[in-house]
Specification:
alpha/beta; 9 helices; 46% helix
């Protein structure tokens, strides 16, 4: 039985995987969790507590508690970027990657600055609603710092499945880019789906995911 670590996207939670966990759990140990600032996780008020590095440490800790030396990382949106970042930091812990409606970050400074401006807008929006934890997570985890993740794509040597909704205009181009740059990666476009096909088109996602996991 293989271990799957499923990481949700920004402003989501472990519940985002509810329609996949049951069907997958017969053949795999599926670990779902809440990133700091999300879901039911108790989250600190200190903005400095929120970082990509701490989040990768949380992911490593989850695998250790499960007794898993390696796992297939399944990540949606921000969770996909974090899965790529985890592979960059701990390639020996990763047996495969499933990247769903996500992107690898930005190589150019101006593009990264544009992303970070949008992140700051989201952070301020959540602050205005009194959701300080999500604002901290935006600035500390969602914001982009450098181009190391996107530059690592050609060096990935584990099996990779890229899944994206046909109508997810924000991440469609990035998904195709990842599939082109990662050696041997397979791209699956889910017809009619938007940004969260694991929730709206779970059967179609499972039809792509199940044979991939069997091959891994």
């Amino acid at each position: 039985m293989s271990t799957l670590l499923l990481t949700h996207g920004y402003s989501g939670s472990a519940r985002d995987w509810a329609k996949l966990v049951g069907p997958l759990s017969g053949q795999h140990e599926a670990i779902v969790w809440d990133i700091l600032g999300h879901g039911e996780r108790e989250s600190p008020d200190d903005p400095a507590a929120y970082s990509v590095e701490r989040t990768l440490g949380d992911m490593a800790g989850l695998l250790e508690r499960a007794g898993a030396e390696r796992a297939v990382l399944v990540g949606h949106s921000m969770g996909g970027f974090l899965s790529l970042a985890f592979h960059l930091a701990h390639p020996e812990r990763v047996a495969g990657l499933v990247l769903m409606d996500t992107g690898p970050g930005y190589r150019k400074d101006d593009a990264r600055a544009g992303w970070n401006r949008r992140v700051e807008e989201r952070a301020r929006s959540f602050e205005a609603k009194g959701q300080r934890e999500l604002a901290h997570a935006a600035r500390g985890i969602l914001a982009q710092r450098d181009g190391r993740v996107i530059e690592s794509l050609p060096s990935i040597r584990v099996p990779v499945l890229v899944i994206v909704g046909e109508k997810d205009e924000v991440f469609l181009a990035g998904s195709r880019y990842m599939a082109e740059k990662i050696p041997g990666a397979k791209l699956e476009v889910i017809a009619g789906a938007g940004h969260s096909p694991q929730e709206t088109h779970a059967a179609e996602v499972l039809a792509c995911l199940t044979p991939f996991l069997t091959s891994v």
